[in-house]
Amino acid sequence: MLTVVGMGPAGVQLMTPQAVQAVAKADALVGATRHLAQFPHFSGERCPLGANIDEVLAWIAARPTQNVVVLASGDPLFYGIGTRLIAHFGRDNVQVIPGVSAVQYLCARAGVDMNEMWLTSSHGREVNFDAIARHLKVAMVTDKRCGPKHIAAELVARGKGHRWMVIGENLAQDNERIHWLPVSAVENDYEMNTVVILDER
């Protein structure tokens, strides 16, 4: 059995009881180093997940009779590892236990409703800044290549500097910070973050 578990933006405190139970029954855990570290007492096999995705897929495939749990940030099917695992192993062979996405968490903390929100990500893909500029409410999962400062510069260049950007930095961690700034005022670099862009505050 292959199960993908959403851990939420930070760690075990946002996992659902079903997700916690899946980890407790696992024979093997796969995940980023920071995710695996959340389970120091787990006694089964561990497989670090990073850029070595092909190697990890082979590692999982070699354990067809084991309960393998893949730990994912947020919701595994929101620009997450769940999509890749389903494509590789088949929809009927992967159980997905959703978690709280970084976008859900940021919107809840900032008091921004998600109605009619356009969702996107910069992870491993080219960002369509024209599409972002067209929508009145956008949420975006960022990465080191394309963070708030880059997004803001692209929006200013498209005449959208008056919009607001909500930057959720280190979400659900002890050093969490949420910033509300006009897009034209976003000039700093931020640690691990997700952003919401609004036409009106």
Write a concise synopsis of the structure shown.
The chain is of the alpha/beta class.
In what range is the share of β-strand residues?
Answer: 15-25%
Share of helical residues:
25-40%
Secondary structure tally: strands? 10
Please write the string of helix (H) and strand (E) elements.
EHEHEHEHEHEHEHEEE
**Helical element count?**
7
- The low-confidence parts are none
Order of strands in the sheet with most strands: 3-2-4-1-5
Q: Whole-number radius of gyration?
A: 18 Å
Any overview of this molecule?
The protein has 201 residues and is of the alpha/beta class. The protein has a five-stranded parallel β-sheet, sandwiched between helices. It has helices spanning 17-24, 33-36, 53-61, 81-89, 102-110, 129-134, 148-157; strands at residues 2-6, 28-31, 45-48, 68-72, 94-97, 118-121, 137-141, 164-169, 177-182, 193-198. The longest helix is centred in the last third of the chain and has 10 residues, at 148-157. 27% of the residues lie in helices and 24% in strands.
Describe the protein's topology.
Layout: E1 2-6, H1 17-24, E2 28-31, H2 33-36, E3 45-48, H3 53-61, E4 68-72, H4 81-89, E5 94-97, H5 102-110, E6 118-121, H6 129-134, E7 137-141, H7 148-157, E8 164-169, E9 177-182, E10 193-198
Parallel strand pairs: 1-4, 1-5, 2-3, 2-4, 6-7
Antiparallel strand pairs: 7-10, 8-9, 8-10
Quick tags:
27% helix; 201 residues; 5-stranded parallel sheet; alpha/beta
